[in-house]
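Recall that a protein's primary structure is simply its ordered list of amino acids. Everything else, from secondary elements to tertiary packing, is in principle encoded there. The following example makes that idea concrete.
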Amino acid sequence: MKDNTIAKINWVREAAIARYPKFWDFPFAERALLIAAILCDTKHIREVGRNRGEWVEAFQDAAGAKPGDSWCACMVTFVCKAARKPFENMGANLPQYPARVVAWREYARAMERFSQKAARGKLFCWDNGSTGHIGFVVGKVGPFVRTIEGNTSSGESGSQRDGDGMYRRVRLASKIGGYIDLA
């Protein structure tokens, strides 16, 4: 990873520790969700151009993707790396090609961590075999799932899997293909 990406990982870790002094005592999935929330709510990440921008390119770098590539899975990868305790294997619990939604789904199935049950701290995903979308589950309320996602639009208009930023969203659970346990 580039120095700029590592600096951004360190920044968000420090921000998490400042807000939550016992941050490293939380389970991994909760740490990841809190980091995603800090990025979404304080950095208000938006693309500059198409699939570009300072933070977007750090996400892409963390996942081994090129600038300009789709970045929802790259954001998930960056967040998971930032949520790892210092000195832990940065690639632990990541698929071999973490820039691809399909790779996350297949990895989760192979590790028996893929289900149809939504829960806080899990990842949601859907795909059609070649494209898809992924993000963090904040919680489930009735038929809805509250999420934090990258590379999506802010509302129902625009692309839901190739939008312009990182947003909190509410989705119908019945439209989500499955959930990945980060435990």
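The chain has five helices and six strands. The two ends are 24 Å apart (CA to CA).
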